[in-house]
Amino acid sequence: MGGGLDLALACHYRVASPHPVFGHRGAALGLITGWGGTQRLPRLVGKARALEMFVGAEKVSAKEALRIGLVHAVANDPIAWAIDRHQQPAVGG
User: Fold this and answer.
1) Taking the model in full, what pTM does it have?
2) Quick check: 36 and 60 in contact, CB under 8 A?
3) 82: alpha, beta or left? (left if phi > 0; alpha if psi -120 to 50)
C-alpha cells in the first residue's frame, strides 16, 4: 500500500504471495506519495488502470495484480520462487 507499492514498483521482478492487497491509498487521505509510483504504475498497468488506482484509492488483490501486469507471478512461497528462477540456466545463453 502506498509507499510500499512505490518501492515494489522500482524492482525488476515483483512476486506476490496469494493474499496481499496492493493499492495507492494516499488519495483516500488527500496524499500522493513521492517515491515514483505515479510515474511507474502507469507504465506497468496503463494510464487508465493506474488512474483508477490513484484517484479511487482502489485495492487490488494478488490475482488481479497478476492479470493487469502489476506483478510477474503469484507464488505460495515467493522467496522459493525467486531462488528457483535465479538458479535456472539462461535461455539462449
Assistant:
1) 0.79
2) no
3) alpha
**Which class for 80: exposed (0-12), middle (13-18), buried (19 or more C-beta within 10 A)?**
exposed
User: What is the distance between the alpha carbons of residues 12 and 73, in angstroms, rounded to a whole number?
Assistant: 12
Measure the CA–CA gap between 23 and 21, rounded to whole angstroms. Answer: 7
pLDDT in tens, 24-67: 777 677 776 667 778 888 898 999 998 888 888 788 999 999 99
Burial of 38 (0-12, 13-18, 19+ CB in 10 A): middle
The owner of cell 497478476 is: 66
